[in-house]
Amino acid sequence: MTLKEIESIEYRLIDALKEGNLTFLDSIMHPNLVGVAPNGDIFNKEIDLESHRKGDMIIENITPKIDTIKIFGDTAIVVITYDTRGIMLGKPVSGLFRYNRIWKKVENKLQIISVSCVKWMY
After folding, report:
1. What residues does 61 pair with on adjacent strands?
2. What sections of the chain are H helices per DSSP?
3. Which of 6, 13, 32, 107 is deepest in the core (most CB within 10 A)?
4. What is the pLDDT of residue 27?
5. Among candidates 78, 68, 82, 74, which has minimal Cα distance to 18?
6. Tens of pLDDT, residue by residue, the chain (122 residues)
7. What angle do CA 92, 97, 98 make, to 5 degrees?
8. Considering only CA atoms, which of 81, 77, 68 is closest in space to residue 118?
9. DSSP classification of residue 32
């Protein structure tokens, strides 16, 4: 696992979010994914994919900035900030959102095993 590999998959993830590429999103989420939404709700892979299927989030603009990547053998922690504008559950949303994502190499494939997000106030 390399920094370049992690950066690449993070940018492919952003493209998949913008394009609504559910096949790619499904392939990179571990079946036992655990996530925490900005409102504190806990979600899993099925809940996350269903929200994408329903179009709960429409991304009008997203500008990423990778803050840090730390690699620990077959696991990587990524902190990334998105400057985002779009529609969430029918309401406008915009601002900086900081994600903490944990990737693990499973059967020679990178998968997200955990993710959390907060609205960054600065």
Report:
1. 85
2. 3-19, 22-28, 45-54
3. 13
4. 97
5. 82
6. 899 999 999 999 999 998 889 999 999 999 999 999 888 999 999 999 998 898 888 899 999 999 999 999 999 999 999 999 998 878 898 999 999 999 999 999 999 999 999 988 76
7. 165
8. 81
9. E
Query: What whole-number distance in Å separates Cα of residue 122 and Cα of residue 120?
Result: 6
At residue 65, what is the residue type? K
Residues 29, 39 contacting (CB under 8 angstroms): no
Residue with tokens 């993830």: 13
Nearest to 112 by CA among 13, 49, 29: 29
CA distance 50 to 67: 28
Which domains does the chain possess?
Answer: 3-120 (3.10.450.50)
What is d(CA 47, CA 57) in angstroms, rounded to the nearest whole number? Answer: 13
For 45, list phi and psi in degrees, rounded to 5. -60, -45
Instruction: State residue 89's pLDDT score.
Output: 79
Specify the length of the chain in residues.
Answer: 122
Q: What is the DSSP letter of 11?
A: H
